[in-house]
Amino acid sequence: MMSRKPIIAGNWKMNFTPKQTKKFVEELAPLIEGVECDVVICAPFTDLVALRVATRGTRIKVGAQNVHWAKSGAYTGEISAEMLKAMDVKYVIIGHSERRQYFGETDVTVNMRLRATLEAGLRAIVCVGETLQERDGDLTNEILSRQVKCALKDIDEVSLRRVVIAYEPVWAIGTGKTATAQEAEDSISYIRKTIRRLYNSSLATAIRIQYGGSMNSKNVAELMAMESIDGGLIGGASLKAEEFAKVIKY
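RESULT FIELD:
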């Protein structure tokens, strides 16, 4: 854990206008001065310009919530990695459970989006996680292994160092339910074992893995005390500057 720098990323989902974005950053930035973890805000596409301007001179990095796998073309409503790079975006969330559930994201398209993101020189936050039905069926490890293996298909060792994995049990997304610290630790530890099998022990030790699933100021300290957990992908708690700051300063 000591060799992995913690990373706390806010996922605003479909919230905030550019004006609200500016106000939020003005409130948040002074509250997190001097923190030692990486801080990312992943905003809607319409907020990215305002976020880039507002975060200049702060330690906050700009992230997007999705990206298309093609560099250009007839893909109405989509955004390419090169477009994001031109806007000074540093991170991209890929494969969030809501993208999988509502917009037809698959293990194959997650891999395609990831390869495009890395080829453009950006960093990725790749989401994996099981549903409640899969957990109750004792399929958690099987699901995690499949999703990680498919997402990282044809990703070389050098590129993998620009990937963060977010373990987000689907049953804990936006529900107020949270995996216990030990449940999260067990699943994230298994993801490391999967990376070890796919690559090597060095990369398995180095890769940063977040917990995503109703992490907030009340449970962040317990979760971050776990050996394998390197940060959080924060949903609802990232929409209030004071609450988000408490998570960041866990």
